[in-house]
């Protein structure tokens, strides 16, 4: 009976990307919203042509999701500013400052105002969850994916914390939820987890990288936290952070006291999919304490649905006893709590 009750809600654990710019005649999107019953969708530049088009798309998705599941839909995007801004100039949006530029200016009022401006753009486009700010401390100047892309505010953890606080306050003022990333830190790496396995055992400096999380969690400013696909032998000798119970449950929840939702970084990145496989990684992430599984591209090479494949694996692990129903129930409760904080719309 318990598993049957869970079955109807499992799709709420998924945040999934799709192809297309219109909800009409989009069979794959219809399946995600109604058959899979995903808890959220994540938009990329491929989905966004203009403000008006994005608004039509998100309104149609939100309405269809409510019809099929009776629940609100999380509509997420990476809107960090600078290079990582899915609503960019190519689609007619005004260019935005990067975290690096804001950090160099070191004007917290400017940072908050820029965050408010971004939030108004998101709200107009029907987006309610910004997968930002990046709180990675830029301690490795040769880091390619964070520092090299202008995504870190500073090498000083106190400045990272202060600018992240300003971003969160700006986004909250306009009714947009946030997610700190990439836990427990991606700023020390020499590699890019989009491309392959990243080991930070010899480069991670735990104290400064955790400072933003420790402070912002204590201030109750962390709506959600996104994991990094980085491996640190000092934290877990077997798994990267996204799949590590020692890192998510032990460090983030028990030591730092975070009780909100944990969202994985994209499970289809090479650092994860190539080494563990999508489905196995998804259930391991849930078992480790993650609540929302991010799948940036639902299309599998064979034409199937990544989201459906993951749900099948979750069901198999639940039925076999390898995945504790209490863990899934706790994850679903955190998703419901996050959705309860969505503004009108």
Question: What is the topology, as strand order, of the major beta sheet?
Answer: 6-3-2-1-12
The whole-angstrom Rg is 19 Å
Level of helix content? 40-55%
Order of helices and strands: HEHEHEEEHHEHEEHEEHEHHEHH
* CATH architectural name: Alpha-Beta Barrel
Q: What's the number of structural domains? A: 1
* CA-CA gap between termini: 34 Å
What is the C-level CATH assignment?
A: Alpha Beta
Number of DSSP-assigned strands: 12
The mean pLDDT is 94
Specify the biggest β-sheet: 5 strands, parallel
- Looking at CATH, the homologous superfamily is Glycoside hydrolase, family 3, N-terminal domain
- Work out the helix count: 12
Class of secondary structure makeup: alpha/beta
What would the principal axes of the Cα set say about the shape? globular
CATH fold naming: TIM Barrel
Strand content: 5-15%
In short:
The chain is α/β, with parallel strands linked by helices and 345 residues long.
Q: What does this entry look like structurally?
A:
The protein has 345 residues and is of the alpha/beta class. It has one domain (16-339): Alpha-Beta Barrel (TIM Barrel). It is 43% helix and 10% strand. It contains 12 helices and 12 strands.
């Amino acid at each position: 009976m318990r598993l049957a009750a869970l079955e109807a809600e499992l799709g709420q654990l998924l945040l999934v990307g799709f192809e297309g710019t219109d909800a009409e005649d989009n069979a794959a999107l219809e399946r995600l919203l109604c058959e899979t019953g995903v808890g959220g969708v994540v938009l990329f530049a491929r989905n966004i042509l203009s403000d008006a088009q994005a608004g039509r798309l998100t309104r149609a998705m939100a309405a269809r999701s409510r019809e099929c599941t009776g629940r609100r839909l999380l509509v997420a995007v990476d809107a960090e500013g600078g290079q990582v801004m899915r609503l960019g100039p190519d689609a007619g949006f005004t260019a935005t400052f990067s975290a690096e530029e804001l950090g160099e200016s070191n004007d917290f009022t400017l940072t908050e105002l820029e965050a408010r401006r971004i939030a108004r753009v998101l709200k107009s486009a029907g987006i309610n969850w910004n997968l930002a700010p990046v709180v990675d401390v830029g301690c490795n100047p040769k880091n390619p994916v964070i520092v090299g892309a202008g995504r870190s505010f500073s090498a000083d953890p106190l400045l990272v914390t202060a600018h992240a606080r300003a971003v969160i306050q700006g986004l909250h003022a306009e009714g947009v939820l946030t997610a700190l990333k990439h836990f427990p830190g991606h700023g020390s790496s020499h590699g890019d987890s989009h491309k392959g396995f990243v080991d930070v055992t010899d480069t991670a400096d735990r104290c400064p990288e955790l400072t933003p999380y420790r402070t912002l969690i204590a201030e109750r400013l962390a709506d959600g936290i996104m994991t990094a696909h980085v491996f640190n032998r000092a934290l877990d000798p077997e798994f990267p952070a996204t799949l590590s119970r020692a890192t998510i449950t032990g460090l983030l929840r028990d030591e730092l006291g975070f009780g909100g939702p944990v969202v994985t970084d994209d499970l289809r990145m090479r650092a994860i999919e190539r080494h563990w496989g999508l489905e196995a990684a998804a259930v391991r992430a849930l078992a480790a304490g993650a609540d929302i599984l991010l799948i940036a591209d639902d299309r599998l090479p064979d034409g199937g649905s990544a989201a459906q494949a993951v749900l099948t694996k979750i069901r198999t692990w639940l039925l076999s006893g390898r995945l504790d129903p209490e863990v899934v129930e706790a994850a679903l409760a955190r998703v419901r709590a996050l959705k309860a904080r969505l503004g009108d719309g």
